[in-house]
Amino acid sequence: MTRLLQRLLGRLPVGWLQLTHSRGRLAAAIAGVAFANVLVLVQLGLAGALNGTIVRGYALFDADIMISAGDGNTMTDGSNVPRALLWRALADPEVADGVALYVGTVTWSRESGDTALQTFGIDPVATAFVRPVLAPILPTLAVADRAAIDRTTRRLEPEVVQDLSEAAPLRFETEGRALSVTSAFTGGVGFTADGYLLLSDQTFLALFARRSSGAPNHILLRTVPGADPAVVAARLKARLGPDLRVRTMAAAIAADQRYQGTQRPTGIIFNFGVIIGVLVGLVIVYQVLSTDVADHLREYATFKALGYPSGYFIGVILEEALILASLGFVPGFLIASGLYLALHAATALPLEMTLATAVAVLLGTMVACALAGILATRRLAAADPAELF
Amino acid sequence: MQADPPIRVTGLNHWFGSGEARKQAIFDVSLEVDRGSLTILMGPSGSGKTTVLTLMGRLRDVQDGSVCLLGEELNGAGATAQVALRRRLGFIFQAHNLHDSLTARQNVLMGLEVHGRGDKDGYQRAADHVLGLVGLGERLDYLPGNLSGGQKQRVAVARALVGNPEIVFADEPTAALDKASGRTVVEMLKALGRERGTTTVMVTHDSRILDLADAIITLEEGQITRREESS
Ligand SMILES: Nc1ncnc2c1ncn2[C@@H]1O[C@H](COP(=O)(O)OP(=O)(O)OP(=O)(O)O)[C@@H](O)[C@H]1O
Ligand SMILES: [Mg+2]
pTM for this structure? Predict the structure, then answer.
């Protein structure tokens, strides 16, 4: 290691030698950096899971453009939109087809507790507007009070939904009506709901007595082949009213993620957690490096007398900072990966350690450590060779 | 140029502190040191020996008077010139000031690397050679913690000399050593100095080594009171 660093730096790796000389301090510093890395990685993982679960709701559908109310920040938030907009949108030559989408939450009371199902109601003939795997299921929901359930719903035992059929449905009561769940699909749990439930628009409206067919939550549109959805969306927005959100699906997803990541408490807490992690790392590395500088003032003063310029010492401290960053990242990464697995097992949230996250956190750790190192160099001024005699 | 002495001090005055507490420590000191000689600065405690040495060694700013070192006037010289000039000098301190985390060889290498990214193997050979000259050829990879006081000070001598400095400044290099090892250190300094033409200025209280000096300058209360040349 010493040799490798010596070749890399073109000089004696004084920082490395200094760090490894006091093993206890080195271990504490590595533990500190690792801890900060775990904090940051877990928070980022949760934030990533949040983004992932947001996509899942949209991914059940297959549309080019989504019309929502001006306050429709997410799929479930916001006012309703008049269904009449659908007819007006269809008047556009580049809009091929459209459908109204109704969104609500159904509570399924089980002995083991309540399960919150994010529920979508959609015209059962609109098979072109759902994900291909849902297309064969959708028409079967035309019968009243039929439903399809997300098989990844939290706390849902696999055997319960294994052999669902019209002959052997899963029945449960909610809002005073008995639903027959005849099929299952793979959706994905989220932060606000435990799973998804798919209904026909008629069953939805029967279940949610206060909702009217004239006021869906969103309107989904498909454009004609060759049309640019972004252009069509902009044109529709101009025609239908500036208060509405008329966006491509991708734009709607991105805006939803942005909103939930920065405006909702969960998202804010994750961001805050990242900041706390960075601060913890900064403080620990600063402590270690500035103590190290203070302990070596005599040596540094001697090196100054030998003719080393102050830039040399900054180099040594940065060397230490980058070594701490790299050595701390490895255990931090491993521990965080383990926590990802554990959290995924416990919550079924889609926590994923991506290469991009790992690399970004490693680079961020290096920048933070370097920053702490630069702060620690302020103490260098105290190394005065005239005081050595 | 060759005729110029490596060190020429003229009318040097120095003060410490400011305002009411301002106190003059050095009074009108003038001296010259010959190339390749060993000059010893003596005097009672507090007489200003260290102050004069640090002023000559460019570790302290010259306030009044002139210090001409290797042909350069230090009074008013800039910081960049200061660092460049220091590399032509060697320092040996009372405490050895070795870096605890570096081996004997690495400590000596620090005296070479300051001259830039030179030939690594050449540096290593030079460091090993000088450590051999001070009798530590067997202890190249020892950390200072595993060396005796005399051995550590010899590493410090090796570090000061390895870069072939033109002038070596030493402040009581033998103070922490017993008689035999103290004398050994000074003899090595003198021998290496003679071999390489290095000029050495040394502060010492140690009267047992005065016979090794080419010139002895005595300071009292910040003034030179005696000069002796041995021939
Ligand atoms: N940094 C300083 N601040 C204030 N006064 C100082 C400082 N350094 C030295 N002095 C004063 O200057 C005078 C000369 O000190 P100096 O250290 O040069 O003496 P010295 O001959 O080296 O003594 P010693 O043999 O004890 O090392 C002393 O009166 C001392 O108190
Ligand atoms: Mg002194």
Answer: 0.76
